[in-house]
Amino acid sequence: RGAHGLWCAGLDRAWPCSSAVPVEALQNQALRLCLGSTAVGAQYGAISALSINNDCSRLLCGFAKGQITMWDLASGKLLRSITDAHPPGTAILHIKFTDDPTLAICNDSGGSVFELSFKRVMGVRTCESRCLFSGSKGEVCCIEPLHAKVDLRDHPLTQYSLLAMASLTKILVIGLKPSLKVWMTFPYGRMDPSSVPLLAWHFVAVQNSVNPMLAFCRGDVVYFLLVKRDDSGAIHVTKQRQLHLHYDLINFTWINSRTAVLLDSVEKLHVIDRQTQEELETIEISEVQLVYNSSHFKSLATGGNVSEALALVGEKACYQSISSCGGQIFYLGTKSVHVMTLRSWRERVDHLLKQERLTDALALAWSFYEGKAKAVVGLTGDTSKRKAVIADRMVEILLHYTDRTLKKCPDQGKIQVMEQHFQDVVPVIVDYCLLLQRLDLLFNQIYDKMSENSVAKGIFLECLEPYILSDKLMGITAQVMKDLLLHFQDKNRLENLEACIVHMDITSLDIQQVVLLCWENRLYDAMIYVYNSGMNDFISPMEKLFKVIAPPLSAGKSLTGTECVLKCLSPPFRSCCLAGRAYPLGDIPEDLVPLVKNQVFEFLIRLHSAEGSVDEEVYPYVRTLLHFDTREFLNVLALTFEDFKNDKQAVEYQQRIVDILLKVMVENSDFTPSQVGCLFTFLARQLAKPNNTLFVNRTLFDQVLEFLCSPDDDSRHSERQQVLLELLQAGGIVQFEESRLIQMAEKAEFYQICEFMYERQLRYDKIIGCYLRDPLRKEEVFNYIHNILSMPGYSAEEKQLVWQKALDHIAELLVLSPGKAAELAAIHFNEQIESIISNLQDQFLLFQFLRSLLDPREGINQDLLHLPPCITEQFIELLCQYSPGQVLETLKVLEYCRLEETIQITQKHQLHEASSYLLEKKGDIHGAFLVMLERLQSKLLMLTQDDESSAEPSLLENIEDTLMKTIDLCQRNSHSLDQQQREALWFPLLEAMMSPQKSSASSQCSYSESLKSLTMQVLNNMAAFIALPSILQRILQDPVYGKGKLGEIQGLILGMLDTFNYEQTLLETTTSLLNHDLHWSLCNLRASVTRGLTPKQDYCCICLQQYKRRQETADEIIVFSCGHLYHSLCLLSKECGVVTKGLMRWMCYKCSSSNKGGKLSENYSELKKGTAASLAQTSSESVLDPQQIQAFDQLCRLNRGTSRLALLTELARGDKHGPLSVSHGDPATSSVFQNENFQLHLTPPPLAEE
């Protein structure tokens, strides 16, 4: 390295990492060769490129001044000195041997590529040069020939001597043999001009074939191209998955077919898995002080005669400082050479072990075992061989892990600390032993070590439980099983022990010990499992269970404690046994299934138990099961009957069981109706089967019917009805006479039974009566009637009968629910509504019906009704009687009513507000006003005549409410009246309010202030419609005030004058402020949008090319107010343009990208369009565009205080919501007055002279 020659030395530094191995300094580093001399260095300049051929016998050196030399590495002799292989005055950037030792490729700083052919003729070494690519067509800055390993030299693509070249604009793949041919051209598109083009070949296995893959990248995207040859000899290049990065690359190196090492522009190494694109590791190598090739790319040794684009790429070029060989990557630093290589799988595991990260080491080793690890080095052979090697290493780690765990266990302290220590470790050891299927290791070596510590032994045994329950661990040695039973028994974890036993291999259990343990601790599941699986005995556990369960059942006691557990377990046990399955898990051997079934049936139908007493009832087992759970037992029998083959023995078994069931249940009165009903439902289902062979006396069904429908027994009415209904639905209907069944059901008030029978007979009208008489289902009658009348599937005659039945019972339906009855009438009885109304005698019921029918708020569509007006008036009449407070609101929503008749009704019932509303609606404004005025005067009269102070507050509130409604009436209509008509409304109202205040006696009353306040409200409201002089003149013309007694109204007059002055001043001030603010804002806005823009740079911020050098004539220049400049096509490629209303709106790419962490601004920057020679500004819209809105907002922010226009806008908005309204929630709607920085810049008002 340097100007004086080439040093070939050892390595003196490296760095550690988890997936890379540090290479120690070579112990015997010695200088082997020193090639060249100071004279050569002075003549040729520095070495700029190197290449060694495949057999390491020749070395090619390229120099900064353009010369090329070839050296013999065995003798150190200079073989060739080439000075005419390329144009003079350009530096050698790359020189590469191909797989053919007589052929090499070089690339100079002029961007040209040359083929060098070495020959020896008559003992004279020569070199012939051929130009493959001229720099005038695009400067090449990177070349990479395809090299094949020795085992791939016969690959069909090696005969083409493929060469990849990367210029500043495109990638080319050419073949040098047998003749020069271009096989692929791939253009970059727009890229960062300072990014470095990179190329790298490697053979990879894809779809069961090995082919070369070319990785090329520039910037932050890596492209993978797979090269194949077809049968015709043509070469095809296909794109593979791209790799998108978040950093710019300056080097790409394959380390094997799946792993690549990337170096970014900030000198960080990234180890990447190609298939998953996962980043395995990141390493900082800034300490290497990497050597860059910038001086050679700038050709400083020959005067710097290179293009600006190539010099810009050379700023980050480090092609000659990084080399790979045999899975190692060498990095040339300013003071040393560093090597990076992937650690072997064993070294990676050992590295974690040195850090005492045993769990991570086991996880990594298991990933090697499963074949899921990435960047694997050092594993060869077939899969089974690799797994055996890894498994041996994992066994060593597990034993070491066990020893270390026991050694590091705290000797003193709380037992919880010791337990936690082993709970963190032991499950990991057990898990990996099971994954490796090394139970011998787990239960011999490891368990023996764990047994030395009692705490570790207990944790070990407890860790086995989840694996046993999930059936991952079936067989356990006898000693471990014995210890497991004793441990769980000592810990009183009997339920856990039982769950483990039923999942264990029976051969690993001590049957006598387990049975004794289960019986003593009532572990019946485990006991059954041991009997069934261990001894094929299915009867003994049932006998033991019946001994436990029979006494409390026969005594009528409820099952508690352990008996409740039995209650849950017995039905599944019986089901498994009768169906030929083992309990609780597994299956009975096929050859034992018939025998087990027969044994169980013979056991169940025994006449007496083995140890039964003298007074024991017959069939004790069947009786106990029926008492225990009748429905479940009969379901099990039904399933069992399904499995029976239709032979003579099976038929006899079924008939015998049925006879026993009838004898036990029918002849005893200690069974409930539900239990008896379950039995006959079961029988009905069996009898209804097409291949039925059972016989049951029909009189028994009649007895059951009498039993369930007995009128003397009123208890369990719903239960008896439900049982009979299930019996009928199961097919038992064929066992009864239908007429007698209906008669008994009606007598017993079984209305659901009646409905079932009537529906079978298609007598749907009868079902309506069933609903009406059933207190639990009355409300469902409306849906039933509606469904029958509206749904298809019923004949016209059936619908007519239902319609007539519903009409006959309409009164009952109205009593049940007036609203639903009205809805039913509107849909199905529209033409009969008048007759229904005329037939109703109950006036309140009629009122409820009409309100549900006519009030739109009740939800009935009024377009369905076609009623005469008299019906509506009848409803209003009833409404005035029963709910006068709702008359006004109802009149407002009624769509059809005659005004004259309705007014007479409301006046008849003295509903003044309703009458006023109707008169106003009619157009008689004065009449409506007089009604309200009369009501107001009557209340004022009551106030002046009422001497009781207790009545004043409520009366005053009533007066205020009436006054407000009267004022609203006047305000609503004053806009459409002339001046005289307005005075006819407002002056009588004012007179009515002032008359109580004229008497001297009332002036001292407690309500005088309230009346004055109300009078001021009248004056303030009428001032908007009546001229102020007219109001004053009318007041002064009053006989009382005309005599000079103005003291009582002085306050009223002064208040009116103050209001007038305030409003006049406010109007003038508001007009002035609006004019000033509007003029100031428009001036500043105009100055802002017409100001010229100065770009910060003369190149595009995306492609980094000068805007003058654009390639497309349609490309425009976009300049933003922030100073950034772009090509329009570049902005479109980054999706920074949006079409709105036919115009293109642009957004600055850099400004919007810098705001990705926060909220992106919604205001687009205004752009200025132009050509390369002109940046003329254009504007054709009269409305404010986004740039103008942004400028206006900026001007508002620069203003010292809140805009006066904003204050007035806020005040105007506040008038709509009240003077003290406060906005919460959305900041966009909050008031400017709530801002803590809000200040008013006002001068104090002048002092008033007294």
CATH superfamily of the largest domain: YVTN repeat-like/Quinoprotein amine dehydrogenase
Q: Count the helices. How many?
A: 45
Tell me the count of domains: 7
Question: How confident overall, as mean pLDDT?
Answer: 77
Low-confidence stretches: 1-27, 557-575, 1042-1046, 1156-1182, 1215-1229, 1242-1250
Number of strands: 32
Q: Which radius of gyration do the C-alpha atoms yield?
A: 52 Å
- What is the overall shape? flat
Bin the strand percentage. Answer: 5-15%
- CATH topology name of the largest domain, in short, is Methylamine Dehydrogenase, Chain H
Largest sheet: 5 strands, antiparallel
Secondary structural class: alpha+beta
Measured distance between first and last alpha carbons: 103 Å
Protein name: VPS8 subunit of CORVET complex
Domain RING-type: 1100-1151
Keywords: Metal-binding, WD repeat, Zinc, Zinc-finger
GO cellular component, one term: early endosome
